[in-house]
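Discussion board: Methods & Data

I've been asked by a reviewer to show the raw model output for two of the constructs in my manuscript, not just the figures. I'm not sure how much to include, so I'm pasting the format here to get opinions. Each protein appears as its amino acid sequence followed by a line of discrete structure tokens. Is this the kind of thing reviewers expect to see in a supplement, or should I convert it first? Here is construct A:
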Amino acid sequence: MTATPPPATRIDGKYEVLREVSRDGNVTLSEVRAAEGVTRTVAWFSISSPAGRHVFHTYRAVLRALSPAGLTDVVARPGAYYTVWQTLAGSPLDAFVAQGGKKPVEAVEAVRTLAGRLAEHGYALTDADIVVDGHAARVAYLRALDSPRSAEEVASLNAPTLTALNGGRVRRRRQPGAWLTFLPGLLFLGGAGYLGAQAAQTFLNPPVREVVDVSGTDAKAAAARLSALGFRVQYDYGQAGGRTIGSIIRQDPPAGTNLPLGRLVTLTVNNPPAIEVPRLEEMNVAQARDALKDRAMVLGKVVRVDGTLSNTPEGRIVAQLPEAGSSAQRGQLVQVMVSTGISGKETWLPLLTGLTAEQAKQHARAAGLVVTQVREQPSEKQPGTVIDQTPAAFVRVEAGGPVVLTVAVARYSAPSRPADSLPLPPVYVPVTPVQPEPAQPEAPAPEVAPTPDTTPADGTDTPVTPESIPATPGTATPEPETPAAGDTAAGSRNVTFRYTFPADLADGSYSVVVRDDSGEREIMPAADAGALRGLAATSASTSVSGDAVFIIRRDGTDFATVTP
């Protein structure tokens, strides 16, 4: 949680802001008027991390040890970390150092003493606003440090001021009977010896008290109770469900422990991490309560307002506090404003066809209507788009009414009969051109042919071919070889695919191809497994050349092979 000065004119509901004095890092100084009418200065610390809270608590411990005269209040709780200061009479330290003439030795010693006390806690004179009033030096304001300064840094920062004091003229007060000054010294030494003995006794044998149980109480009250018993207290931070924020969830040492006075007791304060407030607008009260429950938050006050100006139908949330997306703590109340409806107003919807359901809801919201139902209908339209609406486009209706949208989903048609009874689709067989058979030569007449005369009787030069020469008697004329029926070329043959698909055939799409020397071609197009389970498939005769094999493929991957 980030603690920032509230924009209102009051700080923490107690201090009226008169003006802002200055800003230094995460500290804002404001001049305020307290409840009793007096003027004060508030130093507000903007804290946004555990490290920042640790710095503030360390600073507060220093303030308690020094007890500055100007400090009137210190507040440290989640969301509010500040100190309150009053104006002190006297001269600023710089003016006191710079003034001429002799300075009272008592005032100089008071400044030196104050410098030593500040140095014990890692602070220098420049870290404080110091006023000198008479013989006293008092702290009017102390600035917080991210970390204590080293002894060398403190000495370096104090050197200019202390050197100026040491180098200046000091007016020593003369007192009568100065010769008797040794007597107080003797008394002082005696008293110091006695007190030292008592202190040593207390240190060696400190009194012991029982640590009381402060679990569940407010952190500030718990610290005050333990401090009153003589213990030192420091805070740590954790989280616990079902506990009040800012309450004590653990203490170390635990309650009932006998502990010497002055020892440290660590209190763990319930300070869970901030969570994001969900968006409740357009929800009804029941939906908002469920949404807050998921974030460990609680529905607070419900205010009924007219929803005419915001076009919000009856029962829907118009606004919320805290706003959606802001940081909050677990268990925090969230107030909502709920519409009482739109009074006497008509509205209409534009054409929503083709829009997505979300876009259609936005149009309905802008028109002051509420989408109460979204139906799905198989369609060839783009899935998820609106294909129908009620009320229809541009029809005047009363604001706050319901809207029903019909949204397209992918179309699916179930088979009219079981898939396993469907016939196998016809097998595609490529058309093979048929070659004409060669003509058979006629056998010559069985007679003795005369010796051929190569010169025709008519005297023409007609060439003689071997086919025109008769066969020699007693020699068989060879007949041309006739290809077997169905063969279209030398080495080709016809084969048939036969295969019975198993009854437990895995789901998928199955096709059949044949592969031979001429390549690969499909003989059965893809079919679903449901149509093939238990089916004895037989294809038409297919012409192949060389080695051939049938390949069954499932979804494009080889499933089985069949050799014809």
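Construct B, same format:
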Amino acid sequence: METKNIFSESGIIITIILISIPLIIASIILIIKAYAILDKYLKKKKLEKFNEYLKGLDPEEVKKLEIRKRELEFALTNAELGGVSPAVDNKGLINNVNEVEGFRFIEQKRKSQPRPYIGTELTNLILWYLGCATFWLLFGTTIGEYLGIKFVAPDVDHYSWLSFGRLRPVHTNAVFWGWASLAMIGLGYYVVPRVSNTPINSVKTVYYSLILINASVIIGTICLMAGINNGGGEYREYIWPVMALFGVGVFITLLNYVKTVAKKTTKEIYVSNWYIVAAMMYVLVIAIVAYWPSWQNGLGETIVQGYYMHQGVGMWFMLFTLGLMYYFLPQQLNKPIYSYSLGILAFWTQILFYTLIGTHHFIFSAIPWWLQTVAIVGSVGMVIPVVAGTTNFLMTFKGSWHKLASSYTLPFYLIGIIFYFTGSLQGTAEAFRFTNLVWHFTDFTVAHSHLTMYGIICFMLWGFIYTLVPRLTGKEPSQVLVGAHFWLALIGLLFYTFPLMYGSTLRGLMWIEGKPFIDSVELMAPYWLWRAIGGSLMWLSHILFAYNFYVMIKANTDAPIPTSAIDILRAKQELDKQEMDNQGLTN
């Protein structure tokens, strides 16, 4: 196949445009910063010129300036109609100003807004889910960090249970079913009853679900490291008894959600519950289809694998997280969602088109040509829900963009929305026949999966957690560390994905030209190094996130130091009383 006209291919052009969007945004920010530096430099030069002017003032000019100074300084004494007694602020209206503490060179963000009372039982439940999710994020990405190092130093160990083939599914399944799934379900237990205006149906059964899902990830991890797995199914390496535990846990949660929505006191079912309940239903269907034994042979297994892999991402993680976004974004901006109709349009078109696209990963395979074409058409159809959802979210921001500067949560929301648009449409571009021929079986798919699962799902979940947990516990994380978490994760993701996409394009072209496979392996060495560097930055950001989460939930054992006059006087009275009691005991 000719490769000289690669840039005339629509899939390549679309991908370049999508990659350029975040680069253009970054360039605009860089230009603004550069302009500010230039402006500061010009002002400095102007000041130096003014100082030279001051040095050259003659006595006559100084005298005229002093006369003008006295004229400008003339003012009434403000005692013409009153006395000269000192003013006393008896009401404390003026002098009640506290000293600002903290770093002065870092802009202070707004604190989390208090919300209506949330019961201790529900609070503890949500925190348990989010705490377990955070553990699996650290565990799973620590494994991923080690795998990234193996690309640079493949001989770092020689143990079978630490081999790449066993650890890679440990990494993916831990972050899929442990981190993202538990975090979504935990946040769902806040959103579903909130938008239904009714308590959760049963708190007790919720813990059964938590135990079952954690058990499935623990047992599944042990099985995978021991070499016990499902064979050739990507993201479904857990054997069926392990996945059955996960399925039962999800089914219990689905019943709880549905019964809660059924008892709603609102007139309509809010769009968040449409997305969340549908996601819970689909993940059960996906798991049953993927593990049903009748079609686990030959092409049937390949088709089912494509269905399972894509529906897991789009109809479980994406659908659920978008449902959470439809609640948290309007709540954070203190305004309704831009268009309820756009939300419903995005919902139904995602269900229509996303369920068709699984086999677009198997273009030019033995799968029937018509089925491949249907997957490509469905992938193009995904433009509708993605554009509708992105428009809805960005238009909700309209008139509230200024809030980004004063919020440490909204940047996570915005990055998630940007990657929702670029990452999803990049998947559409990857489905075209030529781009699929170039990129399939390369690390391009690894970069794409991280753009979506990490850039969309993780950033949105982090934003929601930083939004909700302070309202449950009353404790704020360090804004400096939240900012460090954000930038390490974002920069790490860009370092991870962009080099992989570029290197994988070159690798795919080498395969088309029939060059030796080992040459393409040598070609990827520097890009795998960037993968390890980016992954390390992402991993460090997860450590910061875990620490921030700990700060938000830890018990307050430190004695507070009084700052207001009332608290200081009260503390002094208690101290004086304690000293008097001690003197009485000694006497």
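Answer (T.O., handling editor elsewhere):
This is acceptable in a supplement if you add a one-line summary per construct. For B, something like: Residues 10-55 form the longest helix (46 residues).
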